[in-house]
Design goal:
By secondary structure, the protein is of the alpha/beta class. The chain has 12 helices and 14 strands. It folds into 2 domains: about 300 residues, Ureohydrolase domain (Arginase, Chain A); about 80 residues, no CATH class. Helix content is about 30%, strand content about 20%. Strands 1, 2, 3, 4, 5, 6, 7, 8, 9 and 10 form a 10-stranded mixed sheet that branches. A 4-stranded antiparallel sheet has the order 11-12-13-14. Helix 6 links the parallel strand 7 and strand 8. Helix 2 crosses helix 10, helix 3 packs across helix 4 and helix 9 packs parallel to helix 10. The longest helix is centred in the C-terminal third of the chain and has 19 residues.
Length: about 375
């Protein structure tokens, strides 16, 4: 399977990595060369570029392979104990955008099937749709998290594009989407009707201002994700001067890196896409994007392996009775990572013989809410979705 997907890739053309600096990632990363396509094994992080921008009519397409970002990443310190990283090079845009989607979905599916993690440096963020299709090939139900100042919903009849792909994911058959979460949307870009639609579908959406006030609430959201799509237009242009949309408001660079680290820490997450990545950018932009990738790798390197559940002895169980015993909410705290989960029961159905539970990543604040005799919003939304 891996040898087959090598046909989609071209190696990087730069030779600036031939003499790596001691103690940098250039010594750790294995690069695709004309002579050898890297093996992909369980736990490997596989980086690939997809310079496809035809899905965004507002962007002028230029040539480039994100090599400046690769160079900046390679020169960052190797603070990773045993993480294996491979760089697969570039998936060239196909004859049509759909051809590119096919190549991306096939490549990502093959990477994930090997138990590895795909990191996509992408063009326009309609490539999120291609990333999503990889999970259809794997017949896997997924949670999608998007870091984006907009929802990119579109209408059912619209063609997939950078600003109109989410509706295609929601309506796609077979439906493998369990939950969608948006982080850092900006109210001046999103109509109230779309916010109401998200809430009606029990999706999680967080305004930029909410995250600025408390970024830690991001962690349980991304811990439940299978794939995360990071649109760089969510980062303010003062921190990312080559931001394609030149947004004056947005995440600070250090917040973008923190979200990337939370994403890497998630034992469940198997693909991380960074989109609207400029093909040719200033050193400052390349440095920030490389640092976002570095912090994602740091998170992966520090994964604790406590999801799915490890040995029960590594958790403390707490049961909180709500509304005079109407609900008993069970929480678990991991001794390995100090992270919290809570059980959400599947709604009982007539004739059901067994009671099953769905484990939801949560925050200590959810436990505190339950102790105040209130049902946490995260618990209630999940319960409604399971119904």
């Amino acid at each position: 399977m891996i040898s087959e997907i090598s046909l989609f890739f071209e190696p990087l053309s730069t030779n600036a990595l031939d003499e790596p600096l001691k103690g940098t990632l250039a010594e750790r990363i294995e690069y695709f060369t004309p002579d050898r396509f890297p093996d992909i094994t369980k736990g490997t992080v596989a980086i690939l570029s997809v310079p496809e921008f035809r899905g965004d009519e507002d962007v002028v397409y230029n040539s480039g392979n994100h090599e400046g970002i690769r160079l900046e990443l390679a020169n960052l310190k190797d603070n990773f104990s045993s993480l294996r990283i491979v760089d697969l090079g570039v998936i060239r845009p196909g004859e049509t955008v759909k051809d590119t989607y096919y190549a991306v979905s096939a490549a990502v599916a093959a990477i994930i099937k090997e138990g590895a993690i795909a990191v996509i440096l992408g063009g326009s963020d309609d490539l999120t749709y291609a990333n999503y299709l990889a999970y259809e090939k794997l017949e896997q139900v997924v949670n999608l998290v998007s870091v984006d100042p907009r929802f990119d919903i579109g209408e059912a009849e619209d063609e997939v594009s950078a600003n109109k792909y989410l509706q295609k994911i929601i309506l796609h058959q077979p439906n493998i989407l369990f939950n969608f979460s948006n982080l850092a949307y900006q109210s001046h870009h999103v109509p109230t009707s779309e916010v109401n639609l998200m809430k009606k579908m029990y999706f999680d959406v967080y305004r930029l201002g909410e995250l600025q006030h408390n970024l830690e609430q991001v962690e349980p959201v991304v811990r439940s994700a299978d794939l995360l799509s990071f649109d760089l237009s969510a980062v303010r242009s003062s921190d990312l001067p080559d931001n394609l949309l030149q947004e004056p408001n947005g995440l600070y660079g250090e917040q973008a890196c923190a979200i990337a680290r939370y994403s890497g820490l998630s034992d469940k997450l198997s693909s991380f896409g960074v989109f609207n990545v400029p093909l040719e950018a200033s050193d400052r932009s390349n440095k920030l994007i490389a640092q976002i990738l570095w912090y994602f790798l740091l998170g992966v390197n520090n994964r604790k392996g406590d999801y799915p559940f490890a040995d029960k002895d590594t958790y403390t169980k707490y049961t909180v009775s709500i509304e005079d015993g109407t609900y008993d909410i069970v929480f678990y705290k991991s001794h390995l990572s100090d992270r919290w989960w809570m059980e959400v029961p599947y709604p009982s159905k007539r004739g059901s013989k067994y009671q099953r539970h769905f484990m939801v990543p949560c925050h200590y604040e959810d436990y505190q809410t339950a102790c105040k005799d209130e049902i946490p919003d995260r618990w209630w939304q999940t319960f409604q979705k399971l119904g």
